From TrEMBL:
<dbReference type="Pfam" id="PF00085">
    <property type="entry name" value="Thioredoxin"/>
</dbReference>
<feature type="signal peptide">
    <location>
        <begin position="1"/>
        <end position="29"/>
    </location>
</feature>
<protein>
    <submittedName>
        <fullName>Putative thioredoxin</fullName>
    </submittedName>
</protein>
<keyword id="KW-0676">Redox-active center</keyword>
<dbReference type="GO" id="GO:0045454">
    <property type="term" value="P:cell redox homeostasis"/>
</dbReference>
<dbReference type="GO" id="GO:0005829">
    <property type="term" value="C:cytosol"/>
</dbReference>
<dbReference type="GO" id="GO:0015035">
    <property type="term" value="F:protein-disulfide reductase activity"/>
</dbReference>
<keyword id="KW-0732">Signal</keyword>
<dbReference type="InterPro" id="IPR036249">
    <property type="entry name" value="Thioredoxin-like_sf"/>
</dbReference>
<dbReference type="InterPro" id="IPR013766">
    <property type="entry name" value="Thioredoxin_domain"/>
</dbReference>
<comment type="similarity">
    <text>Belongs to the thioredoxin family.</text>
</comment>
<feature type="domain" description="Thioredoxin">
    <location>
        <begin position="19"/>
        <end position="151"/>
    </location>
</feature>
Amino acid sequence: MSLLRNWLRAGVAAMVVMASVLLAAPAQAAPPAGSNIQISAEHVITVTSANHAQVMEQSRTKLVILDFGATWCPPCRQLKPVLEKLAAEYNGRILVGMVDVDASRDLSSQYRIRYLPTLVPVRNTAELPGSRMIGFKGEAALRTWIDAQLAKG
């Protein structure tokens, strides 16, 4: 009975942490009308098991950021347009790979994704160690994080 009680406490604690992360994420607005920022599908790709190897090959020449998310995840929906906008701004220096965790469970398992959204930077077909970004903390924090990943080479 004690073990069950400990599991329940751990589950409740995990729910509290996730709720605080979700509630703390600021909402991001779309670019204003007339803005010169254009979202380019050229720098954003949907990643599946079928094209994962090809995307990894592109990581030999540029930083690939795998965005693990889901359509039902509010912070993921906030992150997506901002990440697409930044991919266009970086103009070929990064490639954003959108991974739907519900459609690509094998990739989610391979990368050991536990929280959404999770950004995984990949360079030369390998994840940059200790560099994941979990959650969405706003555009400024995301831009700073991307710059730090680019600086790693």
